[in-house]
Amino acid sequence: MSAEIASINGVLSDVSAAYIPATDDGLLRGDGVFEVARLYSGVPFALEEHYVRLAASAANLRLPYDEAALKSEVTAVLSEYGSRDGCLRIVITRGGIRLLLTEPLPARGLAVSLASVTYQPSVVLDGVKSLSYAANMLAGRLAVEKGADEALLITPEGMVLEAPTSTFFWVTNSEVFTPPLADRILESITRRHILTITGATEKSIHLPDLLGKIQAVSAVDGHELPVNGPMTVDLAGRLSDLVGSALGGS
C-alpha cells in the first residue's frame, strides 16, 4: 500500500488506482458532497462533527448514502494509514460512490496574502459542502494571477465572506470577529471551535472597513498588514490546546 490510500465503497487501493465511472453525476455535474478532516498522528479531529455536517449536506441535496458502511470504511482507511499527520477526504457522489482519500497536509507559510475576488453565493446551496467547487477553485487562481496566495471572497456589494477553503477572522481593538452565517458562508468546524474558545463576535464587514484591522494575513489587495500579532499567537496556542485535549493528548 502506498503512502496515500483510497477506498471506493470499502475497497482499499493505492490512490492512483482509484476510479469512479465516467457516467457518475458527481464527476459530470459536481453533484455530491464532501468533508475533509485533519489527521493528527493518524487521529481525525472532530470526526463526529464532520459526519453530522456531511449528513446535513447530503440531506439538503436529497442524496442518500449508507452511513454505517461509510463509518466502517473510515475506520479501515485510518487503520491502514497509520500514525502520520495528514487529511482524510470523504466524498459521496450522486452515482452512489463513497470515496475516501488520505492526503498530505497542504503547504502553508506563517501568513498569506489575499486578493479580493467578487463572488455571489448560491442560495440553493446554502449550508451545503458540495462538490460544485469550480467557483472556489477559480477564485483561488484569480488571486494568484493578482500576485496573492489566496482569494478573499467579496460580494458584489463589497461585503467580506471567507476564503475559498478557509474561514475568515479579523481583530479590532483586541476583539475577534468573523462574518455571520447569515451572510451565507459555510459553517466551518474549525470556525465553530474558534468561536467557542475566543468568544468571537459575528459581524458583517465591508472590505474598505477591514484594511488595517487584520492579523495573520500579510496583505489584502497589496495593502500590507502586520503578521503574527499577539492575538494570533494566543489564538493559535489555544486552538492547539483544544485539539490536543480533544484527541486525548495523542
List the helices and strands and how they pair.
Blueprint: E1 5-8, E2 11-14, H1 25-28, E3 32-40, E4 43-44, H2 47-60, H3 67-81, E5 86-93, E6 98-103, E7 112-118, H4 134-145, E8 150-154, E9 170-172, E10 175-178, H5 189-198, E11 201-202, H6 207-210, E12 217-220, E13 223-224, H7 230-246
Question: What report would you give on this structure?
Answer:
It contains seven helices and 13 strands. The radius of gyration is 19 Å and the shape is globular. With 250 residues, it is of the alpha+beta class. The chain has helices at residues 25-28, 47-60, 67-81, 134-145, 189-198, 207-210, 230-246; strands at 5-8, 11-14, 32-40, 43-44, 86-93, 98-103, 112-118, 150-154, 170-172, 175-178, 201-202, 217-220, 223-224. It has two domains: 5-103, D-amino Acid Aminotransferase, Chain A, domain 1; 112-244, Alpha-Beta Barrel (D-amino Acid Aminotransferase, Chain A, domain 2), CATH 3.20.10. Helix 4 links the parallel strand 7 (112-118) and strand 8. The mean pLDDT is 87.
